[in-house]
Specification:
Length: 80
Amino acid sequence: MPKTITPLPRGHYWAAPHAPFPLDGPNGHDEVFPGAHCSSDGKWVTFYKEEEEVWACNALYAAAHFDFASVSDACSPPAG
């Protein structure tokens, strides 16, 4: 039975990309490797390093290609 993937829910996370696949090419995972903070609104995920946006993708793609650990709002990048 195929695995069902759901979009990353709203929240703040620490993200780490899955192992790269040789045919992936430049897809933004390099900017996030080895890990980055991110924020999801349930539809779009924005990744940050040192409080600077480094990459963004839709929440379904993020859920399929990254591992996430929830972090508190105190650890999230500034809004705006």
